[in-house]
TrEMBL record:
Chain residues that bind substrate: 242, 264, 267, 332, 365, 419, 424
Cofactor(s) required, per the database record: Zn(2+)
Role summary: Catalyzes the sequential NAD-dependent oxidations of L-histidinol to L-histidinaldehyde and then to L-histidine.
Record keywords, A-Z: Amino-acid biosynthesis, Histidine biosynthesis, Metal-binding, NAD, Oxidoreductase, Zinc
Protein name: Histidinol dehydrogenase
Binding site for NAD(+): 131, 193, 216
GO biological process: L-histidine biosynthetic process
HAMAP family to which the protein is assigned, alphabetical: HisD (MF_01024)
Gene Ontology CC: cytosol
Cofactor: how and how many bound: Binds 1 zinc ion per subunit.
Gene symbol of the encoding locus: hisD
Length: 448
């Protein structure tokens, strides 16, 4: 049994020890994983459904005649899922929708010079592929965290892939969630093979322009591979193993803090949880609470494996705790201190922030409203979580009248020649000359 991690004193660490203590744990399956993923992608590209069938038998231990979920399986899923759970899903979806609807940006048009009309259009991505993990634990909540913003954005076709169970069916709660989000097409495919099928298409799986969703190392590696291929698909972000950093002072209830750490630790052995506190008393109490709570936790062995690379850090003050959070850039940041909101202006590098003792991260995982598909591994320094904009493209439009061309054309030609791009300059000058000669017929239809 893994012992719980010891507390470290931040003030006693030198620069390199501080870097090491905040390093992510080594990826569990790194060795050979990239080669495996490349082989899976190559097989799916070369042999489509036949390869999916073989790989599914090897990795998911089930043989499927068809990958797409049919009407009977959807109906059976509706019967299998408890009515109370279905009602809670509906309420969660409504709150997630309420939060995402105002995210939708508005198109606009603007004259940047007289006769130069510029527009920003918004176009939903035509066909998107969503992935709901179901390896270690099926995550129906991921279905509405992706399906809701896709629907709000107005995507034309929304496909979902999720790993099959050993009996060849999909997790019923995932299917119910898909139905509630208006997702009609669900494919029983998991891991790198699901990503390859959605990115390149097969006989039975339509090719998607962009892929969304978290997953294990094979899923994330495959997403990065298809995103690097111009013939592949775009991706939302690399969303890796779950992580949380808790900042707590002596006002925090240690049992709440321990519960929040375990809630992320139970996701997987590669999840990482951190606690930074100026109170040694709180740190010691949290360690005791972790032991007590682990004793009755069904996924204790997974949580213990994750706790092996947990970090419990004694800091001189809360400013230092914030500095650590900014360096680490966690997926989730819980601030469980006296006046948590007062610390908010100092925080930028986090996927999602939970303020105060009554805001467990679990609320955000399911039903508070914001998205739970968030950047991990420090990507929160530069990436945001999934939102409506992730499913949209901005398309720019420019329309100049002859007056508009006269107004800004000379600048364009001058700047083109400054870059030694003569053809660019002539595309303007030829038109200006035509206007000067009075051959305005050339410009007919172009006057906005
Ligand atoms: N960052 C986020 O926003 C976020 C949100 C939810 C979940 N997560 C993370 O998602 C992950 C879910 O992982 P999971 O494993 O439970 O489910 P998963 O659905 O991602 O992976 C299951 C699939 O992995 C494939 N696989 C298993 N062993 C393999 C092998 N040896 N070689 C090749 N492929 C193999 C199988 O095909 C299987 O279908 C967790 O790490 C969790 O922390 C992250
Ligand atoms: N905490 C996960 C994101 O890292 C999301 C999730 C889904 N279900 C439970 N938790
Ligand atoms: Zn979670």
């Amino acid at each position: 049994m893994n012992p719980l991690p010891r507390c470290v004193d931040w003030s006693a660490l030198d620069t390199y020890q501080r870097i090491n203590i905040l390093a992510r744990p080594p990826r569990l399956h790194d060795a050979g994983q990239l080669a495996d993923v490349r082989a899976i992608i190559a097989a799916v590209r070369a042999r489509g459904d036949a390869a999916l069938r073989e790989i599914g038998m090897r990795l998911d231990r089930c043989e499927l005649a068809t990958f797409e979920v049919g009407a009977d399986e959807f109906a059976a899923a509706e019967r299998a899922v408890d009515t109370g759970v279905r009602a809670a899903m509906r309420r969660a979806i409504a709150r997630v929708e309420a939060f995402h609807a105002p995210q939708k940006p508005q198109p606009f048009a603007l004259d940047t010079a007289p006769g130069v009309r510029c527009e920003q259009l918004l176009r939903p991505i035509g066909r998107v592929g969503l992935y709901a993990p179901a390896g270690s634990a099926p995550l129906p909540s991921t279905v509405w965290m992706l399906g809701v913003p896709a629907r709000v954005a107005g995507c034309g076709e929304i496909l979902l892939a999720t790993p099959p169970r050993a009996d060849g069916t999909a997790d019923p709660a995932i299917l119910v969630a898909a139905r509630l989000c208006g997702i009609g097409r669900v494919f029983k495919l998991g891991g790198a093979q699901a990503i390859a099928a959605l990115a390149y298409g097969t006989e039975s799986v339509p090719r998607c322009a962009k892929l969304f969703g978290p997953g294990n190392g094979w899923v994330t590696t495959a997403k990065l591979e298809v995103a690097a291929d111009p013939d592949g698909a775009a991706i939302d972000m690399p969303a890796g193993p779950s992580e949380v950093l808790v900042i707590a002072d002596d006002s925090a209830d240690p049992t709440f803090v321990a519960a929040d750490l375990l809630a992320q630790a139970e996701h997987g052995a590669d999840s990482q949880v951190l606690l930074a506190s100026p109170s040694q008393h709180l740190l010691d109490a949290v360690v005791r609470a972790l032991e007590t709570q682990l004793a009755t936790l069904p996924r204790a062995s997974i949580a213990r494996a994750a706790l092996a690379h947990a970090r419990l850090i004694r800091v001189p003050d809360l400013d230092c705790a914030i500095e650590i959070a900014e360096r680490y850039a966690p997926e989730h940041l819980i601030v469980n201190t006296r006046d948590a909101r007062a610390l908010l202006p100092m925080i930028a590098n986090a996927g999602s922030i939970f303020l105060g003792g009554w805001s467990p991260e679990t609320l955000g995982d399911y039903c508070a409203g914001p998205n739970h598909v968030l950047p991990t591994l420090g990507f929160a320094r530069a990436f945001s979580g999934v939102g409506v904009e992730s499913f949209l493209r901005r398309v720019y439009v420019q329309e100049a009248s002859s007056a508009g061309l006269r107004a800004i054309g000379p600048d364009a030609a001058r700047l083109a020649r400054a870059e030694a791009l003569e053809a660019h300059a002539r595309a303007v000058d030829l038109r200006l000359a035509a206007l000067d000669r009075g051959s305005v017929a050339l410009a007919a239809g172009g006057d906005a």
